[in-house]
Design brief:
It is a single chain. The chain is α/β, with parallel strands linked by helices. The chain contains ten helices and 13 strands. It has a seven-stranded parallel sheet, covered by helices on one side. Strands 1-2-3 form a three-stranded antiparallel sheet, sandwiched between helices. Strands 4-13-12 form a three-stranded antiparallel sheet, covered by helices on one side. A hairpin with a 2-residue loop joins strand 12 and strand 13. Helix 8 crosses helix 9. The longest helix has 16 residues. The radius of gyration is 19 Å and the shape is globular. The mean pLDDT is about 95.
């Protein structure tokens, strides 16, 4: 078996605003396997500034993976414990080598017989820009939208109030993602304001790395709290179990590229379900290669909640896609 990789810089059509700053481009690496005339492709979707494996030796480790692609998968997995996005790309490439075409997890989804319901994502910006995005999503038929918040809460709160005045909770599910944008004190106030508007959940209200603070919020919150960045870098089974038992979140958000690939997500899901913690899966600005694999994996998990899967339409130089979005339903073009 032979393995090679190349770097690809995804360019945003329009800068994406979050509480961590504005994104203009997204670096990623494509891993290609070849064995007996068959090919397999995967995306090592490192997220600079966020990934646990955003390290100076990242490409050196990727080259190690290519040089040692013949090793037993258990050895590779152990070697890549601190490089979740590399393991994620390896998992994809091996699965694609096995199934061929654009397949990773064959199912009714990849046969074009079923779809995945997704939420609409609203990026930060001025009020006019955010309201424009919201109108587009509602016109497209979305019943669940997620808003990035945490930069100008006063304005963001006004938008949420207007939305709830116009659409009841039965007609529109509203989720918000703070990306750690609030202090502990601010978060308590925000959680109550969100509860008054019957907001479904808030992702990562305070910065990751504060499990005691998060545990306190989760214990008393009137609005369900979802852990997102808090999961990054938590790699061992016992460590994952301890985090969930300590914080007791209402939900966890799983990004395969950041959470140890599909194997890592399987472990998180099993632990979450043991203590009745809800979960859903989201993409993390992957190209269409990684997004396709995540969508196929997500379908196999049979979670009826709207999932956070982007559609690859954010970039000017994306790869071709086998995914097709019709309203809020994501299909595979079989």
């Amino acid at each position: 078996m032979k393995a090679t990789y190349f770097r690809h810089l995804l360019e945003f059509k329009r800068p994406g605003g979050t509480s961590r700053g504005v994104l203009h481009e997204k670096e990623t690496f494509i891993l290609e396997l070849e064995d007996s005339g068959k090919k397999g492709v995967g995306e090592c979707a490192v997220f600079r500034g966020l990934s646990y494996d955003d390290r100076p030796d990242y490409e050196r480790k990727l080259q190690w993976l290519c040089d040692h692609i013949h090793l037993d998968p258990a050895i590779v997995k152990q070697e890549l414990t601190e490089f979740p996005s590399l393991w994620f790309g390896y998992e994809q490439a091996v699965l694609n080598l096995k199934y061929g075409g654009s397949l990773y997890f064959p199912s009714a989804f990849t046969e074009g017989k079923a779809a995945i319901t997704i939420n609409g994502l609203i990026w930060m910006g001025d009020i006019a820009f955010m309201e424009e995005q919201i109108r587009e999503k509602l016109d497209e038929g979305f019943h669940c939208i997620k808003l990035k918040i945490g930069v100008n809460w006063e304005s963001e709160y006004e938008i949420l109030k207007k939305l709830r005045q116009k659409f009841s909770v039965d007609r529109l599910e509203l989720r918000v993602d703070a990306n750690g944008g609030f202090t502990a004190g601010e978060a308590k106030t925000v959680l109550q304001q969100l509860a008054d508007l019957q907001i479904h959940s808030i992702e990562q209200p305070v910065k990751a790395g504060n499990p005691e603070v998060m545990a306190g919020l989760c214990a008393e919150t009137p609005t369900p709290v979802a852990l997102d960045e808090e999961l990054i870098g938590v790699t061992g089974y016992d460590e994952k179990k301890r985090l969930l038992e300590t914080v007791k979140p209402q939900f966890i958000i799983l990004k395969p590229a950041l959470a140890g690939g599909f194997a890592g997500c399987d472990e998180w899901i099993a632990l979450a379900e043991q203590q009745n913690t809800g979960w859903w899966i989201t993409s993390a600005l992957e190209s269409n290669i990684g997004l396709n694999a995540i969508a196929q994996y997500t379908f196999t998990k049979k979670n009826p909640m709207p999932q956070g899967l982007g559609t690859g339409s954010l970039f000017t130089n994306n790869f071709g896609s086998v995914l097709d979005l019709k309203g809020e339903l994501l299909f595979y073009k079989s």
